[in-house]
Amino acid sequence: MLSVLQRVSEASVSVAGQVIGEINHGLLVLVCAEHGDSTAEADALLAKILKLRIFSDENGRMNRSVQDVAGGLLIVSQFTLAADARKGNRPSFTAAASPEHGRAMYEYFLARARQLHPMVEAGEFAANMQVALVNDGPVTIPLHIAAGSASGTAKGRQ
């Protein structure tokens, strides 16, 4: 699974002009399932996101997690994270999971996040969404858990 985290002071997602999810201080989590991803990859990615120390402590060092600072999560599906633009001028999205599998993985990820974290808001799968945010820092972290490697740790995508 792929994810891009943005530490935010506020973020919201709208569909058809209506805000459907919003948070204040926390993380905007853009997430994409790839072919072969399972609930194991979703669990590993979520565990990494919840524990990642990218919030400042009293000394201004990135030493606290979203859980430590009681921040919110705004989780938005974004299949375009799987884009491959190495050839030509039109990105290929063949690495993205099928819409059915992508929806199942997104819904699983969202349900698990709601079980493990008290403040979780969400976008709408496959909708045309408008995401607004104020990136705090700015801090933007890409994470990738490859299918079959969920026993390892998430790493920044190269």
Description:
By secondary structure, the protein is an alpha/beta fold. It contains 2 helices and 8 strands. Strands 1, 2, 3, 6, 7 and 8 form a 6-stranded mixed beta sheet that branches. The protein has a two-stranded antiparallel sheet with strand order 4-5. The chain has one domain: 3-Layer(bba) Sandwich (D-tyrosyl-trna(Tyr) Deacylase, Chain: A), CATH 3.50.80. The longest helix is centred in the C-terminal third of the chain and has 18 residues, at 99-116. β4 and β5 (62-64) form a beta hairpin. The model has no long low-confidence stretch (mean pLDDT 95). The protein is globular, with a radius of gyration of 15 Å.
Q: Which terms would index this structure?
A:
158 residues, alpha/beta, D-tyrosyl-trna(Tyr) Deacylase, Chain: A, two-stranded antiparallel ribbon, 2 helices, 20% helix, 36% strand
How are the SSEs ordered, and which strands pair?
Elements: E1 2-15, E2 18-23, E3 26-32, H1 39-51, E4 55-56, E5 62-64, E6 72-77, H2 99-116, E7 120-122, E8 129-144
Parallel strand pairs: 3-6, 6-7
Antiparallel strand pairs: 1-2, 1-3, 1-8, 4-5
Helix pairs in contact: 1-2
